[in-house]
Amino acid sequence: MTLRGKHLDIAASSAVNGRAPAAKAATIRDVAERAKVSVASVSRVLNGSDAITETTRQRVLDAVAHLHYVPHVGARSLSTSRTDTIGVILPDLYGEFFSELIRGMDLAARAHGKHLIVSSSHGDTEETMAALRSMRGRVDGMIVLSPHVRAANLAADVAGRTPVLVMNGGLDEGGRPAIAVDNHGGAVAAVEHLIATGRRRIAHIRGAAGNLEADIRAEGYASALVGQDPIIVEGDFTQAAGHRAATQLMALDQRPDAVFAANDMMALGALLAFQEAGVRCPEDVAVVGFDDVPLAALVRPTLTTLRVNIAEMGRRGVERLIGLVQAGANAEADTACEIVRPALVVRQSTAAAATAGSNPDQTAASLS
Predict the structure, then answer these.
(1) Candidates 3.40.50.2300, 3.90.850.10, 2.30.30.50, 3.40.1180.10; correct CATH number of 183-308+344-366?
(2) Per-residue pLDDT of the chain (368 residues; tens, 9 = 90+)
(3) Domain 3-80 falls under CATH 1.10.340.30
């Protein structure tokens, strides 16, 4: 290996190491030269334009295949003003809820020839902003799912002209395109169902303090109670939190005969704690969750819950955002907040003792 002036003799270096020099990647000009067409014609073929003859299209595709040409995404986005990429900012990437949500988003994105960039904010406003800034210029639009209204609204402001769809933030999104779950109505349905099954001492395992969904579900729980004061134990939407909360409830002088957990994972943690303590469900205590994650139908007893079709909500979010992107400047006219109404799914965890072995999955009508 020798140095010639300030340049390294790459050929000599490669020979010494027993490797041939790396082949130079083909460019769009190489494709145009081989296909004997203009660069503009190659670009039109690669962008799917109809303003090209079939003969020219085939020559370009043959040249692309022969040269193993890979279009430069950055250059293509400059010419089309589109990246065909959607940014998704979630509070967390862990757990069945977010797994189902991303699955629905991915299916919709693939169906439309789009790609996803997914980032987690860990429920923190500053991290939401950092994730958003990192995506600006790299995506055509963003979906922001935030447990805090402030973070969701800030995200929409910071995004500038990039379309933003807010998901799951709440029913009042300040005139922004949004999809929100009726958390209050779902919580009321859970408590009313427990009252209808004869439960009179109903406790609530709530989500993290300051989390908008947790706050609204707790409000719905309290508003639906009849003849009892609220019994609320703090949680954080994790299975471990549900287990701890159930242990606290069992230590009360007067144990509850029912528990409404703010999500399924805490409900499953509570079920485990009751089983470990020899407390029977549903005979001694009934349990209701929220979300209807896939695991809810697989545990025993199967879990009564409020069904939010999570994957479908993810699919709808992507399709709604694609519509905003395609609308361009006209997207400002779309300020609708779509409401997802949970449906009560009655399973074994709230059945009366005499019917505990009956139909494990009886779905009630959606909330009106």
Answers:
(1) 3.40.50.2300
(2) 433 334 334 333 344 444 445 567 888 888 899 999 998 888 888 776 677 888 998 898 898 888 888 765 555 554 456 789 999 999 888 888 999 999 999 999 999 999 999 988 876 777 877 888 788 778 999 998 877 666 556 666 666 678 889 887 565 555 778 899 999 999 999 999 999 999 999 999 999 888 889 999 999 999 999 889 999 999 999 999 999 999 999 999 999 999 999 999 999 999 999 999 999 999 999 999 999 999 999 999 999 999 999 999 999 999 999 999 988 766 566 778 899 999 999 999 998 643 444 455 555 544 43
(3) no
Residue 152's Cβ-count burial label (10 Å; 0-12, 13-18, 19+) is buried
pTM (two decimals): 0.75
Which CATH architecture fits 85-181+310-341? 3-Layer(aba) Sandwich (3.40)
Tell me which long-range contacts 58-65 makes (C-beta under 8 A, separation of at least 24): 59/35, 60/31, 60/35, 62/35, 63/31, 63/32, 63/34, 63/35, 64/31
Token reading at 346: 């009655």
**Beta-carbon contacts of residue 148 (< 8 Å; ≥ 6 apart):** 123, 125, 169, 210, 211, 212
| Contact by Cβ (8 Å): 118, 90 | yes
Contact 314, 105 (CB under 8 A): yes
356, 283 in Cβ contact below 8 A? Answer: yes
How far is it, in rounded angstroms, from Cα 97 to Cα 358? Answer: 27
The residue ranges of every structural domain in the chain are: 3-80, 85-181+310-341, 183-308+344-366
H/E segment holding residue 86: strand 85-90
**Residue 174, CB-side half-sphere exposure with 13 Å CA sphere:** 12
H/E segment holding residue 90 = strand 85-90
